[in-house]
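Allow me, if you will, to draw on your knowledge of protein folds for a short while. The matter concerns a single protein, recorded as an amino acid sequence and a row of backbone structure tokens. Could you please explain, in whatever detail you think fit, how the structure tokens follow from the sequence? I remain grateful for any guidance, and I place the record below:

…
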Amino acid sequence: MKIIGQLNARTKDRAHLLVANVALAAILCGAMLAAPQSGFGQSLLKTTTPTDKHAPYIVADEKQLASGPSSTYYWVSDSVGDSAQLLTLLCHACNSFDSIEPDVPLVSVLRDTLGDQTNENDRITYVWLLSSTPSRLHQRILSAIPFFYWRVGSGSQSVTNHNLKPLIDVSAPEPSLIAQGVRNLLQLIFDPMVTPVRPSTQEYRSNVLENERLHLEEVISYLRQAPTSNDSGALTQAQLDIVIARLELRKTPLGGLVSENQARRVGIESNFEQERIRSRNAELLRQWAEKSGLMFEPLELAGHQGRYGILWFPQSRSTLQKGTAQHSMWKLLGIRDPWSDSRLRNWTGPVYERSFDENEPEKAIPLAVYNFDYPKLPLVTVDFRKKLTARRREVIQRSTKELTGGVIGLSYLTNWYFYLGFDLHRFVVGRRGKPVDEASRLDCYSDFRMDLALDRNIDPTLKKEMEDRIQPLSVNPLESAPQVEIQNAISRYKLLKEEAKDGRLIERVDQERRFELSSFGQSEKGKLAKDMLHVFTLGLYKQQTPNDDLFLLDCDRRVTYQLNFLNALVQAETPPEIAYDTEHIKSSVHELSSLMPAISSSAVRSQAEATLERLKNLSNDAELQADCTSALALMKQTDELRRAAAIAAFSGDMPDEFSSPDPERAK
């Protein structure tokens, strides 16, 4: 009985503690939602006030909102030794904070060319987001405080050589996948701990992941606008697709396991999917604006066309015809009914002169800016009448997640019934037009904040209004101000060019080459084991060959390129000459056949034989079938010579008839 009494007392104590934690979290959440932005948060909510408070004032004309030049983004190439390139994407005349350096470097890509002009043996390794700003100590501490949703300060303005870590290694995505798994495992260890530990670790991990996703989306947004070329001055379309795909796959849990062929398809499909979403959302907003009596206008920021749109309220029209708009229409638009808003009748804010449908200019009031990249519907990014609507949505959703998972400690395994009902509620609300996808909203916010900061063609007053209303969405303490990121991008680009000149960058390239030579022909399990050792030893272990042989590396990359091309043909299970020119396929078969004698990896040779056999069976072209048969016969003959050489080497007598372009590999 004493034991039962003690258990009951402990249960009551835990229940009281749980109730106290929930009440405290609710009080904090309510205080953050209701309290005014004061102290360090006060600077986020400053707005432009008119000089005359009793009458509207007219600013801007239509030319100031016009699009910029078509060549907004361009590449600059810097040599890295004699066999690599540092390609940097710059935004032309996008720096509104420094007239001395008007062009802003955004993304740098390291391409290993092996010193020739062909694209078959090129390899993309590192990708840098130059505007990425390292987090300060106080930012990391604040990011671990639950229910803290403010950005303190503008971010670090000092850039050193220690801040030149690449955002992603395109050639080796597996280590990042393993590192993410290690972080998830550590979080599982922290979850059963007491309440102060669990919500703090979850909050810090959530802020770090969101900050990383924000940077990934920035790079993707820039690269989608980058020009492509087959010469040495820019990335090719295939290389750009692979880089974008690796960045997109970095957002997914198992994206690092996707092969290069699949990654390229992901990059191509993501581009088509984004264009489809943008076109659909732009048409939806145009139709909704027409039905509701508002004016729709596409908005171009930093050279991005078709991504944003803005709704205007015609000030000269006082009422809307009955039956034109319904109550559900305003829910889809995400704004209040402007026709019943008394503030618009007595508007004291800025008024703009706009021309719609080639009519005479009329006075219009901006209502909202929409982002067309959100998957479900046009997303309200800026509401000119309600500054805190978007912030309140973000804070409520994040607070709910921290309250249930961090403070109360609910999990998807033991409390599945709660999350089942919660996800069902999100599904129903999302079907009714609410933007409930937090990750997609973060992507849209990431694109808009930097596009707005880089644009110099929009009216300054309208830009200032947008900046004042987008700043409250900075709910991550690890985030930095766009102005600071732009200045840091220029400094980081200078440091990268210095590393390219003094030889430090080519040393990284040499290390990657030796690692690539040691990994060629290995199985996926072997590569995964090496990557795990690399992560668990904090980067100290990385298997490498003693030296980088450019001839062997060139041969390996060409074989990989041709195998990827032929594998893509046979995976379609249709005659290959239907999709590609027969001469192109023959040329690929001939080059693969000429390169295979230098390849000693049995796995690669087996893959090449299987691919050529399938290609021969699928093709209806007699000449192509004959070329595949000849290539297979030559490979089998080479295999027999290699086996004979191995037996002779074991017995101490090397046959003279065996020859190979690679004597080292023959040994």
